[in-house]
Write a structure and sequence with these properties.
70% helix; 4 helices; Helix Hairpins; three-stranded mixed β-sheet; alpha+beta
Length: 157
């Protein structure tokens, strides 16, 4: 496959992912508004987010695997795909471990995302005390070596 075809395929996959995420939010939003329970909305957020994140990553890994397995890919493209796949796996592992450690501190649910040296932590909580924020920041810094300015903590009720 030519480089142009690969770019078109990747762009199409991205557009499909965005459409899927939008439809998922719209359809889940309609079902949760009829129930009028905040727990269902929060539960759906964390479940939906994890599901969307996993499907996106599965697509990315499949894309990298296709490049690596393709006999027409150049050695440079294969090496880049292997590197990107390893970076993705490392990110997934860091997020999983960080989420587990934060849950171990007594938080009901949490989602951690890592993008361009910025870590977002979404915690299921009405509000966070300064000691809870300090615990979360400490865990994130230990796992990611990211500065305080690049950590965002968002409580979600």
């Amino acid at each position: 496959m030519s480089k142009k075809k690969k770019i078109i395929i990747l762009a199409t996959m991205f557009v499909l992912l965005v459409v899927t995420g939008y439809l998922n939010i719209v359809l889940n939003g309609n079902s949760t508004t009829t129930t009028n329970t905040e727990n269902v909305v929060t539960g759906n957020f964390f479940t939906t987010y994890r599901s969307d994140r996993q499907s996106t990553r599965d697509q990315e890994i499949a894309y990298y695997d296709a490049i690596i397995a393709s006999p027409t890919s150049s050695a440079d493209a294969k090496a880049t795909a292997e590197l990107k796949k390893q970076e993705l796996v490392n990110t997934m592992e860091m997020e999983l471990v960080t989420e587990g450690l934060i849950r171990a501190r007594g938080f009901e649910d949490v989602v951690v995302t890592n993008s361009n040296s910025c870590i977002n932590v979404i915690v299921k909580s009405a509000e966070l005390t300064s000691s809870e924020v300090a615990q979360i920041v400490s865990i994130v810094q230990e796992q990611s070596n990211v500065g305080l300015d690049n950590i965002k903590i968002i409580p979600v009720e």
